[in-house]
Amino acid sequence: MRIDILSLFPAMFEGPFGDSITRRAVEKGILDIKITNPRDFAEGKHQQMDDSPFGGGSGMVIKPEPMFKAVRHVKEATDYANRRVLLMSPEGTVFNQAKARELAQYDQLIFICGHYEGFDARISDNLADEIISIGDFVLTGGELPAMIITDAVSRMLPGVLGSEESAPTDSFYNGLLEHPQYTRPREFEGMAVPEVLLSGDHAKIAKWRREQSLARTLRYRPDLLKNAELTDGDKKYLEQLNETYSAGD
Question: In 79, 163, 181, 196, which residue has its Cα 20 to 30 A from 123's Cα atom?
Fold first, then answer.
């Protein structure tokens, strides 16, 4: 997959993309990340990227000309039919795991990161294929959301993770929170690892993990259960948990 990020602050990406899973994905040739500074496409002596809004108001707005030129440059320099231009903005659709899986199917993603008061509306209306938000809050710019989405999407690419089982067992992958994990020592300060995990019985372990995943989701994020893929057994177990919780009240 090719990822192009348009940002006025390209140095921000050096740390996050230079370590961990993202770096390994690049080293393996699974991921190709390029950062383009749209200021390089701005005109005038000072390469001005923003201007005051028509109609008055506070703040500065990113001009359309350099952004259109930058995106067109990236498209002309690459040859991908299956690509998506994403604009980072709090007014967009909230990003989730399902969206990460969807975006992982593209051959190229082009991120447009903003700053200042926002974008000239012609950018969001005509240049971006989709507007994405990472939550209902405002950040200084789109760089952090672009990093987060790149990280989440890259985990979905075959060969990126050390184990092919890692992504399917992540929280939210199947609509539920992940089951609890344990490692050595077997006992720590009186807290012991559940015996079922030491049994060697893979069927029992799988059943325990599924039930723990359901229980944690019900406790911490019950809203996720509405859209989760649940079996009849899952539903029965959740009913039992609800009865137990109700009795406890």
Answer: 79
